[in-house]
Amino acid sequence: MPELVFPLDSTKSFTDQAIVGHNRWHPDIPAKVTVKPGDSFRVHCREWFDGAIHNDDSADDILNAPLAGVHVLSGPIAVEGAQPGDLLIVDILDVGPIPQEDSGPLAGQGWGYTGVFATRNGGGFLTEQFPDAYKVIWDFTGGVATSRHVPDVAFTGIVHPGLMGTAPSASLLATWNAREQALIDTDPQRVPPLALPPLPDSAILGDLTGAEHDRVAAEAARTAPPRENGGNQDIKNLTKGSRVFYPVFVDGAKLSMGDLHFSQGDGEITFCGAIEMGGFMDLRVDLIKGGMDTYGVSENAIFMPGRTDPQYSEWLAFSGTSVTLDGEQRYLDSHLSYQRACLHAIDYLQKFGYSAIQAYMILGAAPIEGRLSGVVDIPNSCSTVYLPTAIFDFDVRPGANGPHQVDPGMGVPMSAG
Amino acid sequence: MPELVFPLDSTKSFTDQAIVGHNRWHPDIPAKVTVKPGDSFRVHCREWFDGAIHNDDSADDILNAPLAGVHVLSGPIAVEGAQPGDLLIVDILDVGPIPQEDSGPLAGQGWGYTGVFATRNGGGFLTEQFPDAYKVIWDFTGGVATSRHVPDVAFTGIVHPGLMGTAPSASLLATWNAREQALIDTDPQRVPPLALPPLPDSAILGDLTGAEHDRVAAEAARTAPPRENGGNQDIKNLTKGSRVFYPVFVDGAKLSMGDLHFSQGDGEITFCGAIEMGGFMDLRVDLIKGGMDTYGVSENAIFMPGRTDPQYSEWLAFSGTSVTLDGEQRYLDSHLSYQRACLHAIDYLQKFGYSAIQAYMILGAAPIEGRLSGVVDIPNSCSTVYLPTAIFDFDVRPGANGPHQVDPGMGVPMSAG
Amino acid sequence: MPELVFPLDSTKSFTDQAIVGHNRWHPDIPAKVTVKPGDSFRVHCREWFDGAIHNDDSADDILNAPLAGVHVLSGPIAVEGAQPGDLLIVDILDVGPIPQEDSGPLAGQGWGYTGVFATRNGGGFLTEQFPDAYKVIWDFTGGVATSRHVPDVAFTGIVHPGLMGTAPSASLLATWNAREQALIDTDPQRVPPLALPPLPDSAILGDLTGAEHDRVAAEAARTAPPRENGGNQDIKNLTKGSRVFYPVFVDGAKLSMGDLHFSQGDGEITFCGAIEMGGFMDLRVDLIKGGMDTYGVSENAIFMPGRTDPQYSEWLAFSGTSVTLDGEQRYLDSHLSYQRACLHAIDYLQKFGYSAIQAYMILGAAPIEGRLSGVVDIPNSCSTVYLPTAIFDFDVRPGANGPHQVDPGMGVPMSAG
Amino acid sequence: MPELVFPLDSTKSFTDQAIVGHNRWHPDIPAKVTVKPGDSFRVHCREWFDGAIHNDDSADDILNAPLAGVHVLSGPIAVEGAQPGDLLIVDILDVGPIPQEDSGPLAGQGWGYTGVFATRNGGGFLTEQFPDAYKVIWDFTGGVATSRHVPDVAFTGIVHPGLMGTAPSASLLATWNAREQALIDTDPQRVPPLALPPLPDSAILGDLTGAEHDRVAAEAARTAPPRENGGNQDIKNLTKGSRVFYPVFVDGAKLSMGDLHFSQGDGEITFCGAIEMGGFMDLRVDLIKGGMDTYGVSENAIFMPGRTDPQYSEWLAFSGTSVTLDGEQRYLDSHLSYQRACLHAIDYLQKFGYSAIQAYMILGAAPIEGRLSGVVDIPNSCSTVYLPTAIFDFDVRPGANGPHQVDPGMGVPMSAG
Question: Which residues of A touch B297 (CB under 8 A)?
Fold first, then answer.
């Protein structure tokens, strides 16, 4: 095991740890940990709600989730010698649930959850169809997830961090805040909101205190969206063995990470989302000095996925186009066409006995693939969603005998939004 | 070889063939070919511009492409016993370039092309960056494509039909026309247009003549967009060995196909697009009676890809978010985030000596994968584009030694739009 | 299509063709076709028994197969400039059944066969268990093989040449003949024989005639075994897209090929064997001058498999050790341990209702993988055979409910040896 | 983490642990641990020589390795309700190096070794070419192995147990002893020996003592060979996610395991062999009552590999036939043909600057695949060995520019045998 540089004690809250992480992006959050290029090290990560979600059969905790407090991140970790303009190489040597703890109240202790927020909390990708709060508990047996809430499906984990990134510079942060506020201003009362402005309430900023804490809290960006620094990209393929290249915007790079997922489908369509858990990451860092200019990588993370993602060779795929459910034609809207593809998959799975929300939860948590298949054929984009057939305990393909019927069991806990 | 039911003579134009196909969707285009459930048969397909694009080093033909005449489709082919409500199973037994003809003036005779339209002709996915007309010729050597216009790249074909589908019913056609006209009406003068209304000019409607021809031509839908019947989905994974399930909207199903591609990246981002060619398809059809209701498949094609797609195990991926190049924040716009991911890949490839348009052409033609990675993290969606590293003759990964430099050679022919 | 340099007319016997190939290895068989480095070209190939095996339900033709006449090979093809010491690069651009002919009396016209020889004809890998002659007919529908003799199994073709190689030099030929005769001499009366000496009877030697024919026929090596020149390697992964490097032993290299297989399991354990067929190969050749020494490749073919082999992600594997069925312990005998692994797979498949010979035929024809898992753990080697579970129409995995029962149907035709 | 039922303290020798395992097979070794069908549990495993091999640059420890003491196994573990005739399902939930310990004197603490024995100690697959003792140390960084003794190669671990199996019944044990002694008796003085008879010296038999210890020690089978109970199969694909089915020969099944490998090529050709290490296994067991008869599995383990083995899509393969290096023709000897294929690969790699022993070590430790390609083409079998090209830091393919030259560095430590 590499040296543990950022420990978390499962029995304590995120703010009571030896080193306190953060839940906002800001260049002035102090790095309490420093590593050198070439170093390998271990980081513990807390699940994104710091333990507020429980292993039970109620969705009340999802309904009342402490949204202001996300994402609790481990870091920032300074990398010696990193300067603006460099590319930071991050090798994901390993990533997994909380080691040696397979039961307990924290997601990551042998279990995780997938949630759908009520619309007023941000909803999900299909919030019009699923406006309430829902929760599914998944049990991890070795590398495989199963659920008492979604029967007859099991899949090998495609474990990855939902969120990892470097700190923004002050000017980049200002850019973020300005452009996101401009969007909010176009419809400030929208539910769900268009974006999330800085929010001092619940801000955790490492060991900052007093006036400095308040200044930073007032400026710091929320962690929900992915941005130029990587951040909450929710790319399911950032698995063990992956190499990521992040732009460096501040001295020391200030790398942070968290929001671990045991598994996720492309898009994290359920929002809360993936199979959420805490755990650990083993990382190795290095630098390409001046690499941002050398390789033209200035405003996005680039990466090479690992070689051990779960392998499937048979897929059932659904397509969608950019026409709304009400029949309105939109112009090359790939977001909409992916929604329609997902809804088509849900329609299909319901014919096998699943409830609609069970089907939605499968799409959010299993390693489905979402593809931008056609993006130019005006006015309809075409998106596709691919389901690995082997994750089902039964034959999920269309055939002459009609769909097998599953027993939906207790179903998915719901709390009215 | 299965029986050839729809032949095309490479020396004759599409309208001079023994059986004349069509280039519009309408339920009343007569089927001159009928097959039975269980039948295997061969269909010839003409490249989508009926030979207007030449194997040369000028993009003038792309600039002046006969857009009103696309897509020249083979069919309709009636399937005995098919009725509205059925699912039509179509097995793609084989698909390839024009057999036994490896040189000649027709795309598919040993070569194909990728084009980018000038903005006034519809542009491409990145028309703001590439407003002119461009063309690249690809040579097929066995299963591999290479180009004198894009050096040091070679990839195994992922051969597929860009377009296949069943005929719409009269009411479905009316729905299409109404919703697309409503979109056009929101900005009728837009360049490129928001959608393409029915266009009697250049309509090919099988053997219809006279008043019936004129009636149908006035009503028939253009073939550019994918819709409920499948159509121009441009799904690169509909390769040999795939099984597609189409909804049936009219008696006999009336299956048509064309727009063959030797290869394509997810999205067909260059629009004209993929590696365009003529060729053949070997198909087998069958029916699931009443399958639309049984499986909940009423407004989209579903499919299972084949088992012999080209295999790559190492990928270099680029991410993008829904912020415009001008810095404007958009709300969960996966179309935009995929554009940004593609632009990031183009930025990167330019550092290796490629021109921007060469890089764009690689993304359009090679088997890149485009993923909807994050679609819920307001306000930024995250899209990713994956390039197989093995398609390059050199090491395309970032490293300590900096990017290898290719000789861009003659480059990509352009004609000012 | 590349230029057809070696045509075969399906209506004529192998010796009545415009260019007559050969069925023995000898440096002095004249090359009637010459190609240049860099050339692409097409070659027709006859099935190895020149049409003696029929599409029927009797194994009499296998029992009486004209063994002295195999393998009918296309070539030799001279490569300009090739000299002893070079490496000959052969790219398999394409390989498939007889194009445009999907029915007829020749294997390759839409069908192929797998046979097991009677012991006196050479038997098969498991000749003690299966001492008679057997035959299975496989139908090709697109890229997939199915059989009326082996129900409920279907697999995507892994099409390849069983045999390809360069001509031996006179001294290499002498070495072959000497070492094989020395083996024969250890047990000259053995049934099946230990090796096959030169046999003038039925020798086909291109257009050689008279005394030269008789001289060459007396010296020429049989084509059954693989040797330093490649030859009858029966490597199932020499599929479309593969690149092979052959040592060059004579001026012009004199490349020959044939014995096409629609599919085969590792080992070609049924001997006659694979799914035998005629068809075509599209090849491209090039030279690495002096490459034998440069790369240390002097007595074997090396190769890189293609990228489009059929993909499976779930396998059921059986192991075997080097103990005979009679319980005798052998020393690190990987041949025996693979026999035992195959027998274990046959035992297993019989529990699902297959006859033993049906199971054997599946192992011979389907793309099973045979691995040398352990070769050092004295006294037992461990070999394993992997079956892709997706080739079965039913769930072939062990489970709580016991094995599904197939209807074995008419079964496998047999003729007593 | 599942419950740890078989702990090992890294600071103590194998015989000083709380529960002492065993290094021989015998039905009467007591099971100190019992689990139930459905249980998941963790087992620690010691490296097979119990720490006798050091992380240094001398091969003296390999030369003097305590062969009489291998393999130190964890177990036996009794499974409640298991009876002779059942099939024992063993799911490998996880397997890895010693957790939380990345440095220290035990293989598995961040490093492992590959050895070749001197001929008098059993040699290796190529002992005629490599008659001395050699050792290579591999460092584990996350999931990847690299070595100071073999430069410019790195590969993702394919972690697995070399040895796992159930206890033999008394009659099965007697069968083993009889048949192996019969083999030994054919050449009792052979070096290396033909097989290893029971050896009371160094026998570890759990907590047996006194006369019972001596009786069992005199009868118990050595653990080197794989046999009907599974045992030392050295199958590199028994990775995380695999399911194995073992025959049950005694009440409680008495499962044991050990000899963990961080990586291995097919065959474990270097014998000591693979990348040897200690570590842990997380297992889940279940029973198919009467399954040996139901599925015809009575004398071998069957298994389904996991879904997360490292993926490679480009391979360079070498073939060999059953002719000795001295030119003697053998009859269908797949063991010999695999030796020749491996020697051909070694010849090739030497042209890139590796020493012969470095090349041999790569083949033993990296995830190469060894296939039984042709086993019927008398007199030559054809075996092939596939190297994933991506494990090399340079382009290992043959080309026009000749082989890249690596700096072999300090090379492989050797101790004269």
Answer: 344, 347-348, 398
Residue of C nearest to B92 (CA): C142
User: B185-243: per-residue pLDDT in tens?
Assistant: 999 999 889 999 999 999 999 999 999 999 999 999 999 999 999 999 999 999 999 99
Helix, strand and coil percent figures for chain A, each rounded to 5: 20, 30, 55
Flag if A302 and B398 touch (Cβ within 8 Å). yes
The DSSP output letter for D220 is: P
CA distance C1 to chain B (A): 5
- Subunits with 3+ Cβ pairs within 8 Å of C are A, B, D
What subunits make at least 3 CB pairs under 8 angstroms with D?
A: A, B, C
3-state secondary structure B354-367: CCHHHHHHHHHHCC
Give the mutation candidate from B100, B160, B237, B307 for the C interface (greatest C CB count, under 10 A). Answer: B307
Domain ranges of chain A: 3-304, 315-415
| pLDDT recorded at residue B318 | 97
Q: What DSSP string describes A314-348?
A: -EEEEEEESB-TT--B-SS-HHHHHHHHHHHHHHH
Is A375–B267 a contact, with Cβ atoms under 8 angstroms apart? yes
Per residue in A101-120, pLDDT tens?
Answer: 889 999 999 999 999 999 99
- H/E stretch holding D65 reads none
Handedness of CA C114, C115, C116, C122 (dihedral sign): negative
Note the CATH number of domain A3-304. 2.60.120.580
Instruction: List the one residue out of A117, A52, A123 whose CA is nearest residue A278.
Output: A52
The pLDDT tens digits of the residues spanning C311-366 come to: 999 999 999 999 999 999 999 999 999 999 999 999 999 999 999 999 999 999 99
Between CA D18 and CA D12 the distance in angstroms is 10
- Most D CBs within 10 A among A308, A389, A391, hence the mutation to make, goes to A308
Say if CB B307 and CB B90 are below 8 A apart.
no
D390–B312 CB contact, under 8 Å: no
The two structure tokens encoding residue A132: 């309430």
Burial environment of residue D139 by CB neighbours within 10 A (0 to 12, 13 to 18, 19 or more): middle
The neighbour count for residue B397, using CB atoms within 10 Å, is 15
ipTM exceeding the 0.95 mark: yes
Give the DSSP H/E element, type plus range, for residue B283.
strand B279-288
How many Cα atoms sit within 13 Å of A385 on the Cβ side? 32
Q: Which residue of D has its CA nearest to B388?
A: D313
Query: What residues in B contact C310, CB-CB < 8 Å?
Result: 307-308
Per-residue burial over D32-50, b = 16 or more CB atoms within 10 Å of its CB, e = otherwise: beebebebbbbbbbbbbbb
Contacts of B330 in chain A (CB under 8 A): 183
